[in-house]
From TrEMBL, chains A, B:
SMART domains: PKS_ER (SM00829)
Classification of source organism: Eukaryota, Viridiplantae, Streptophyta, Embryophyta, Tracheophyta
Domain Enoyl reductase (ER) intervals: 35-357
InterPro entries: ADH-like_C, ADH_N_2, ER, GroES-like_sf, MDR_fam, NAD(P)-bd_dom_sf
Protein's UniProt name: Enoyl reductase (ER) domain-containing protein
Record PANTHER family: 2-ALKENAL REDUCTASE (NADP(+)-DEPENDENT)-LIKE, PROSTAGLANDIN REDUCTASE
Stored Pfam families: ADH_N_2 (PF16884), ADH_zinc_N (PF00107)
Length: 361, 361
């Protein structure tokens, strides 16, 4: 029932000791996609006994773990412009996950509760403090991986960018780059739900089709084919751009600044096109003066600064999901051992939707 | 008394006709500083008779006219990124000015009232509609040119940038470029009045001295001598930058983005270093990704969008001025004929403070 059957208990008669595999940061990867040179899977023995759990803590069996681009930026070993803290060497890395409470020494959590946590160890089992731990209602009719996508980091990043910083109005002209990625698919749907006209850019014709047919985008274009971004934006935004959710930076951002309307907003969620260069080799944006004439607001953000709005976000997204107004799409990798492969997949345009690992079937 | 004695009246016995010199946009200047090829001074005869003044209008004798960088951007004949409307060819240009009411056909204004208006014709006399016209209290003990500097466009631009968009706190680290210019001298003083630590960049050692000794800047540096902006900012901002009022753009903006603190604000007032190039030849800013990690808000603005706050601004600045807490500095050119020279002076680093023309001594 708990998935612990057959796992070697080797303590006294009341003890439960499990073998837990976990991902350790062995060496930083300054460039390129991290490999087994940098990330090591190791097996530890973990006692889930009441005696082994500190007061207030809970023992958790991980079910799903989220694989997001920001994890990459915590593995460089140097400051890359995002200023995220780096994972400590030879320590277990952390990630957003969904788990099941195995044993609780905290009145707020009971055995069997499904919980989410932005900072779970990337492991099969763990002893977790209650900070950031939140119980999911399994009767809500929402599949668990949705809590890592529409209701997790990418959904929250989309919501903060569109609703908090973007202030969309019915009829606003909204552009979203990396539109078929984890953030983009939700950002586009949220903007549509607000009555906007939404256009996305993405890297394959298959994704263009998907954005228009499954996720309700009004238009989408393949930036690998329509490489004159200025011409593409002139075509798709005859009335200019009111809101641009930037996931890529560089030349696309520069092109957008030639098509902004008065008081346009540009929330910057990330700039994945720029992550693999040092900053002096990145593409310069030459037309920032347009921000003055059009009174544009450009704002970088990290979801961690908006955690006071997480409940508002959750309520809204749960409602949309139950009403069938919000679709998710997951690329599921099986088993904790698939982490390196799943991480690498985010940098090759090979996935559609949100990348997650199913730790336990 | 009105300055009209001796000006040729040539109508009936109750009529007053004046000769008024005025500046006309004769040809656009795409590049460089406008000359007499582009701006022509012509003399017209203007009747200031009650019969010649439309109902609700007033006849005004101009006393002071403001010369600001934005005037240049309305003379290019092409879209330059600021999107200001261009002055119409062969029409009188307009500017911010202070005048004296000669005759009024509007109950809100009386003969002898001192009035200001952001859109006076650049002329010695005019018939003005009441829109935007505001009466100045001459007993307030504030010299008239101050209404074109601390209480005019540059003061308002400084106030919007620092107080509305910049949200400075006591102890905030504030950086201001073009610090000895019309906007910079007030921006620095406003930030100091809010308890900030203020550093400015400017183009000569004389101005560095002036900023520190007369305008209360904590530090200032000569960007023509300390040409490694990154090193300069590291030196002057050991604790990083919380607020940067950008007047210049380009390399200075890029350097600032390497020293921003979490939630730094960058109101963009203008980018005078970039005005004379077409956008594809302007300097690209390569490190915008830093805006994500530091959650920086960058916002272009034009004072015209904040006119609903002009009264708040005026009250605050008048109070500071009367209390001796705010100093102005003017570079005064004499006579309407000095316009071309005064306009050109803004692009040579030769002035200190706000450029104004005294139309009538």
């Amino acid at each position: 029932m708990t998935g612990l059957e057959g796992v070697g208990g080797c303590g006294g008669e009341n003890s439960t000791v499990v073998e837990s595999r976990e991902w350790v940061m062995s060496a930083y990867a300054a460039e390129g996609v991290p490999t087994s040179d940098h990330l090591k899977l190791r097996t530890t023995k973990l006692s889930l006994d009441a005696n082994s759990i500190p007061d207030g803590h809970v023992a958790v069996e991980l079910l799903w773990i989220s694989v997001d681009p920001y994890l990459r930026t915590r593995m460089t070993g140097h400051d890359d412009g995002l200023y995220f803290s780096q994972f400590a060497l030879n320590e277990v890395i952390t990630a957003f996950g969904v788990g099941r409470v195995f044993l609780s020494k905290n009145g707020k959590f009971s055995t069997g509760d499904i919980v989410i946590n932005p900072f779970f160890p990337f492991a099969e089992y763990c002893i977790a403090p209650p900070t950031f731990l939140r119980v999911i209602d399994p009767t809500a009719g929402i599949e668990l991986p949705a809590y890592l996508s529409s209701l997790g980091v990418p959904g929250f990043a989309a919501w903060v960018g569109i609703e908090v910083l973007g202030n969309p109005k019915p009829g606003s002209n909204v552009f979203i780059s990396a539109a078929a990625g984890g953030v983009g698919i939700f950002a586009g749907q949220l903007a549509k739900l607000k009555g906007c006209r939404v256009v996305g850019s993405t890297g394959t014709d298959e994704k263009v089709k998907l954005l228009k047919e499954e996720f309700g985008y009004d238009e989408a274009f393949n930036y690998n084919k329509e490489t004159d971004f200025d011409a593409a934006l002139r075509k798709y935004f005859p009335n200019g751009i009111d809101l641009y959710l930037d996931n890529v930076g560089g030349k696309m951002l520069e092109a957008v600044l030639n098509h902004v309307n008065l008081h346009a907003r540009i929330p910057i969620c990330g700039m994945i096109s720029q992550y693999n260069q040092i900053w002096t080799e990145r593409e310069g944006v030459r037309n920032l003066l347009n921000m003055v004439g059009k009174e544009v607001r450009m704002e970088g953000y990290l979801v961690g600064s908006y955690l006071d709005r997480f409940d508002d976000f959750t309520k809204e997204m749960e409602t949309y999901t139950k009403e069938g107004k919000l679709r998710s799409k997951h690329k599921i990798y099986c088993g904790i051992e698939s982490f390196i492969e799943s991480l690498g997949s985010m940098f090759t345009s090979s996935n559609i939707g949100k990348v997650v690992i199913q730790v336990k079937p």
